[in-house]
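In this section we walk through a basic example: taking a raw amino acid sequence and producing a predicted 3D structure, encoded as discrete structure tokens. The instruction is simple. Fold the sequence below.
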Amino acid sequence: MFNRKECPIVNLDYKVEILRRLETFSYQVAYFILEDEGLAIDATKRALIEVSLNADFYRQSLSNQRETLRKLTIRQSLAPKTKTLLSN
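The resulting token sequence is shown next.
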């Protein structure tokens, strides 16, 4: 039997468990940047979707998962602001 780090296929329940555990963290990062609940929710959703597609993410330690998600959340939070600045 494989442990989670060795298993080549991570099951859906485990993925959901990991993402739910990190959801609030991602929202807090986004809200700190955006200071708007709706925009923070949108940025959090985009970051969680992006990270969910990375199979290696689920094999990382919790601290590395948080760091990866923090970076993605920052990028997703700044994306609308960047688009606005570039279009002006």
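Looking at the output, two observations stand out. Residues 1 and 7 are 9 Å apart (CA to CA). The two ends are 57 Å apart (CA to CA). In the next section we compare this with other chains.
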